Amino acid sequence: MTNAVKARHGDRVRVHFTTTDREGTVLESSRPGDPKTVVIGDGAINPLFEEALIGLVPGDRATVKMSADQAYGKYRKQLVFSLKKKAISMKADPVPGEIIVITLPSGQKTHATVQEVKATKIVVDANHPYAGKDLLYTLELVDIQATSSGSPGETL
């Protein structure tokens, strides 16, 4: 029996992650950089990630499969639309593939990917870049920093 510390609700943990699509293409990864710090249960990450981290000990890995609906939602064609160039505040014309911040009619700001640049308008896509994709996340618990009570998780 080991005295390894298990991650639990309320713990501040450091995690490496890799996101791949259904074909195995790496979409994002925390490597080679620093692991990400999260608090299990604070709502800052997907609840499926939190669930997967609970009970892990440093060095353990978990995989989380998410359908598009569980991850970033379905791809919605209505989120692809044209804007007048003067509606965006940029010094130079954006280029296709560039991510810009736009203001929606509701006043809310959001990110959008430039699809096409025309003489007076630009076509943008306000879907998340991973919308409509089933994703696989590989999580590696690096360490447990402390619990909400001030001491690391529970021992085995």
Descriptive report:
The chain has 156 residues and is mainly β. It is built from 1 helix and 11 strands; from the N terminus they run ββββαβββββββ. It has 2 domains: 5-71 and 132-148, Chitinase A, domain 3 (Roll), CATH 3.10.50.40; 77-125, Thrombin, subunit H, CATH 2.40.10.330. Strands 2, 3, 4, 5 and 10 form a 5-stranded antiparallel sheet that branches. The chain has a 4-stranded antiparallel sheet with strand order 6-9-8-7, with no helix packed on it. The protein has a two-stranded antiparallel sheet with strand order 1-11. β2 (12-21) and β3 (26-29) form a beta hairpin. The longest helix has 7 residues, at 47-53. 13% of the residues are buried.
